[in-house]
Write a structure and sequence with these properties.
It contains 14 helices and 11 strands. With about 475 residues, the chain is α/β, with parallel strands linked by helices. Bound molecules: glutamine.
Length: about 475
């Protein structure tokens, strides 16, 4: 196995016992990027020099640490991680995938970035995304679309397209993302990696370029569920710079990974396996249900009756918040150039300005907020009966580049199974569920707010019983 193919857990072991060095590991990732980024376009910026420098520092630190010391407080020491280009890093260009911020260099680190750096992570580069995180396919990037490593004629899913593709192609050991309506779970599912969208407020949004502030969740992509828990242990928690991070206790997310799923009640919402679900995706999902049943979980049908309004509600609330958040790129601040806004951003700014304008506010925005509450109540009711819910992540397998780009409504519909979790503020985990029409698809595990420990436990148990996460794309 090549070093860049290691999981975080495996690399930690190798580094601690000095079987491998961070410089070797980082070089392996950089080589992979050099070889395959020209065709995949997963990175906007590669931080070659600074990454090697950080790796050298990490190796020196390992030489000064005893094995015990290199435990928790340096849990990511020497591990190469890629960041979605929406995460501010001091001194490194951060574009949000838009030409508007083509030359923007943040003067500070996002809280998550600071936490990763404090634990010794090596920042390997900034990944491509749909501009401002608007999109489901990666094609809205002003820096060209990212390609799916499993078949470069297909989309990798968006908006965190580069982070998922980079990880799937072993260009890093983990990567970060943001999920406002599915932008972590969808690309994770399309690229055969694990994606975690934590509970709203579990991870600080400070320093991450805002899309829709009441929906944005900060999460990550990993090769295994265990790695996802390791990363959440670092990123979760209250932050004085983000008032939406509550003081809810941060658990040890790796603790229950091996507790199994025996007697855990898992709901399957009947509205999610309805019309419009691709036959092959449905078959894979039914197989996943059987696997979980075989492991001792109790599966039962649940109902989320307001699901059908999810897309309509999301595409009113989300653009409303976008129109307010993007107003700061006025051509005066951030060295921004507003004439560079792309079509999708313009579409959302106009929609949002309209739905918030007097005369229409009551009819659209306010009504959408009411229905948002009903969607949240659906989940509250369901979670009285079951511990967690599973669904496919996407109603279809990955689609061809160009297939939906001229039909925004069709593109929006691909979010139908993911937006409700953001509207309700609950966590969602995407794990590889097999291949439909030869391309990866994922299973989504949802739970009540702050139930990440349970979701990771279910995800890990399913993953260990299946082979999907061990499959790699042929590059
Ligand atoms: N695809 C959705 C949108 O375009 C979600 C994007 C996201 O989660 N950032 O708004």
């Amino acid at each position: 196995m090549k070093l860049n193919q290691l999981t975080i857990k495996q690399a930690q072991e190798g580094l601690k016992t000095k079987k491998i060095s961070s410089v070797e590991l980082t070089k392996a990732c950089l080589e992979q990027i050099k070889k395959h980024n020209p065709s995949l376009n997963a990175f906007i910026t590669v931080c070659e020099d600074s990454a090697l420098h950080e790796a050298e520092k990490a190796d020196q630190q390992f030489n000064n640490l005893t094995i015990q010391q290199s435990g928790n407080s340096f849990s990511l020491l020497g591990i190469p991680i890629a960041l979605k280009d929406l995460f501010s890093i001091k001194g490194i260009k951060t574009t949000a995938g838009s030409k508007v911020l083509e030359n923007y260099i943040p003067p500070y680190d996002a809280t998550v970035v600071k936490k990763l750096k404090d634990r010794g992570a090596v920042i390997i580069g900034k990944t491509n995304l749909d501009a401002w995180a608007h999109g489901s396919s990666g094609e809205n990037s002003d820096f060209g679309p990212t390609k799916n490593p499993w078949n470069i004629d297909y989309v990798p899913g968006g908006s965190s397209s580069g982070s998922a593709a980079a990880l799937s192609a072993d260009m890093c050991l983990a990567s970060t993302g943001t999920d406002t309506g599915g932008s972590i779970r969808l690309p994770a599912s399309f690229c055969n990696v694990v994606g975690l969208k934590p509970t709203y407020g579990r991870v600080s949004r400070y320093g991450i370029i805002a899309m829709a502030s009441s929906l944005d969740s900060i999460g990550h992509f990993t090769k295994t569920v265990e790695d996802s828990a390791i990363l959440l242990n670092v990123t979760a928690g209250k932050d004085q710079f983000d008032a939406t991070t509550p003081g809810v206790e941060v658990q040890n997310y790796t603790k229950n990974l091996n507790s199994g799923v025996k007697s855990i009640k898992i709901g399957v919402p009947k509205e999610y396996v309805a019309k419009g679900l691709d036959k092959n995706v449905q078959t894979k999902f039914e197989e996943a249900i059987k696997v979980l049943e075989g492991l001792g979980a109790i599966l039962e049908e649940v109902t989320l009756p307001h699901t059908e309004y999810g897309i309509a509600v999301y595409y009113i609330i989300q653009p409303s918040e976008v129109s307010s958040n993007l107003a700061r790129y006025d051509g005066i601040r951030y060295g921004s150039a507003r004439e560079n806004f792309g079509d999708e951003a313009k579409r959302r700014i106009m929609l949002g300005t309209y739905t918030l304008s007097s005369g229409y506010y009551e009819a659209y925005y306010k009504k959408a907020m009411f229905v948002r509450t009903l969607i949240k109540r659906d989940f509250d009711e369901a979670f009285k009966k079951v511990d967690a819910i599973i669904t496919p992540v996407s109603p279809t397998p990955p689609w061809k580049l160009g297939e939906k780009i001229n039909d925004p409504l069709k593109m929006y519909l691909s979010d139908i199974l993911t937006v409700t979790a953001n509207l309700a503020g609950i966590p969602g985990l995407s794990v590889p569920m097999g291949f439909a029409s030869g391309l990866p698809v994922g299973m989504q595990i949802l739970g009540p707010q702050f139930s990440e420990t349970l979701l990771l436990q279910i995800g890990h148990t399913y993953e260990q019983a299946t082979e999907w996460h061990n499959q790699n794309p042929k590059l």
